[in-house]
Amino acid sequence: METKGDGGVPSPFLPRMRPVASSGPRYREARYAYATVLPVVLLVALFTLYPFAFALVTSLREVVLYKPWSQPFVGLKNYLDVVRSEFFSTSWQHTLTFVAGAVPLATLLGFGVAHLLNARTALTPFLNVTILLPWAIPTVISGIIWAWIFNSSYGAFNGALYSLGLIDSYLPWLSRPRSALLCVLFAHVWKEVPLTSILYLAALQAIPEELYDAARVDGAGAPAVLRRITVPLVLPTTLIIVVYETMVGIVTFDLLYVMTGGGPAGATSLISYYLYNSMFVAFNFGQGAALAVLLAIALVAFIALYLRLLRSEEIYVT
Amino acid sequence: MCTRRIAVVALLVALTLTGSAAFGAAPVQLTFTVWSYSTDVILDNIKKFEAANPGIKVGLQDFAWEKYVDVMTARFVGKTPTDLAYSSDHWLQQWAAANWIVPLDDYFPQVKAYKPDFAPYATEGMTYRGKLYGLPYYADTIIFIYNEEMLKRAGFSTPPATWDDVTKMALAMKEKKIVEYPIMFQFQDITPWYIEVFLSMVYSYKDYRMFDDGLNPTYDREGSAAHKVAQWLVDGMRKHKITNPASLETTEIPLVKAMGAGQVAFAVLPKYNLADLNTPGAHAQAGKFKFALMPGESHGTVGFVRFYAMTKMAADRGTAAREAAWKFLEYFGGRTGTEFVVVKRWALDKGLGFAQLPLYKDAQIRAAINKWGNVTLEEQQSKLARAKEALTPFWGSWSLEFQKEMNKALLGQKSALDALKASAAKWKEMKK
Asked: Does domain A77-317 fall into CATH 3.40.50.11030?
């Protein structure tokens, strides 16, 4: 029985068929695909969308834990209170300083270490394992270790400087605002470099050797090879590293909590610390949630900025 | 058919009842959270409690002191099963206002009988809106500890009586190169002892009050006791250089270790540290430490109390859990028979102070305290102790702001008075 007239136009005299039936296998395929991803989508929704929505709702209410009987809707008051507070500007200042130091250092050092590991010497297998050690140590433990190292009474750092004759007496590195931030930064970079170097190592090992051979035949020196071949080809990895390290830098908390407690005088209180204070010290979950939402927006803005600045395909073209 | 079914059901019920009777009802399980301090002793106390109360099992969970409040907040908010917990006068207002812990008077009226036994500052520290929230784990005072040998080497035979004396003696020690920085504090931004130490120094003045009756701050006025203390601290660090600048990164244990190693001559610490400092073999300078009444005009100090509290979660579990909780509370913070068994053990084994005043008459206790301290002086200091004033639900968050502002003054970023004014402004903001 014909179902269509000439030219594929449905005949008004024939019973109208449901479009579903005409694309049955495709529909089944789509249904299968949706069914397959649904559990994952639900899990993601449960663990990301729901908390985010909950935080958003909380940020619009006055939620103070020791006033459980009253949680009125306050609109954007929490956001305004957070933005107007003195701590907001100072903690962002500290955070941006920290990130401005941590991201380039972790990226460049990771790139350098990856080059060393890529040299394939007899020590390479051993170095591959040892380089990962700082990354494998829990952050709180590494915080304690670094707090000991920089301790003003018995720290190894002071001991080394003293033995070398560089200082006359032990210095309180963690009791001075600038040096305390530098100490935390140092510990953070130490912890992060293994990951960035492993990522770079994978990227370096994926570059075809033929490209380097061709460059050498053309008479390119090491700097030219680095600039024209290596750097452009590891750019996607660089983008991932920069985005990741920025996020990690902005939300760093455990290391500074263990090493300095945010001090001295709030000098190492990053934005994450302000968030912690709002929620777990002041018990003001409304303000804490507002701050968390602002932090999420800032992170998205940073990522968008990086994606725009480091669009790898454009660089490949040039 | 029907008769057979009834017979089977009856048999099952009978078997269940017989089984319960034979094997006893399932024990009541209690979860008890503490901060990490002598967990071996706590576990041993629990073992003895369980032996005396076969129907109760206690699971212990311990967390670092510095992180205890955060962990407990997360547990309460997340409703992690917790029946009994160490608490403190520091956090009572917050925990009670949030309904995380419950007043013992409401569930166990018999607790009132204990009140006359407790030191007044301890009772005050465990009371919120007229109700008692706990039985004391320990209660103690903040005291002034000094290294007697260092003091003698500097040419002094008696301890300092005023804060000016402390400066004078510290300068003499520095001049004679006995120690570079004779004084050290635990002034890391977030350490909970910071505010207690500061207040102890404030309470050593006659006009010690920080707040008026309406809970408005008065401590930010020029010439107040708090101003005198803040200025003394700033001068010690920046002008006389007698206070170790590393105080700003220091917490309790590193300070005690530095003192024990002979790097510090004067410190203001919770009293129980004196027992540790004078324990033979525990520190290089063990045996050389003494305590004096808090230097100042009135020699007053802060008295604080840490106590066993019952959570709302336990209260909501029903009669069996509540009864078990009371047995636990009474065993640990009250009397077993006629004695405060656990409290006495802490005092004898670890030198912890106590709120239970009848224990001062105990010969064993008196002898034990005199081994590392001075029981007469301890009693005298206890009588001069005061509970912290204005313990509001936001006291904890204000104290952190206070500490941060004070550290700005110690770093020379602002004057002592400006630091006090900034923290007073925070108080007013929070009070709204």
From this structure: no
Chain A interface includes B284 (CB < 8 A)? no
Q: What is the pLDDT of residues A53-90, one digit of tens each?
A: 999 999 999 998 877 778 899 999 999 999 998 889 99
CATH of domain B27-139+304-369: 3.40.190.10
A:226-285 residues touching chain B, CB 8 A cutoff: 260-266, 277, 280-283
Distance CA B255, CA B275 (A): 15
Fold agreement (B27-139+304-369, B141-303+377-431): yes
- Of B427, B396, B432, B429, the closest CA to residue B219 belongs to B427
SS3 B356: strand
- Chain B closest CA to A152's CA: distance in Å? 6
Partner residue facing B189 (CB), from A65, A265, A283: A265
The pLDDT tens digits of the residues spanning A140-155 come to: 999 999 999 999 888 9
Could you give the ipTM of this predicted complex?
0.79
* Torsional sign, CA B143, B148, B152, B158: positive
Query: What gap in Å lies between CA B249 and CA B354, rounded to an integer?
Result: 30
Residue corresponding to tokens 């009848």: B358
Domain boundaries, chain B: 27-139+304-369, 141-303+377-431
Nearest to B85 by CA among B133, B53, B142, B51: B133
Quick one: closest CA in B to A285, which residue? B77
159-178 in chain A: CB under 8 A from chain B: 169, 172, 174-177
Cross-strand pairs, B285:
none
CB-nearest to A261 from B73, B189, B244 is B189
Superfamily of domain B141-303+377-431: Periplasmic binding protein-like II (3.40.190.10)
For chain A, domain boundaries:
18-59, 77-317
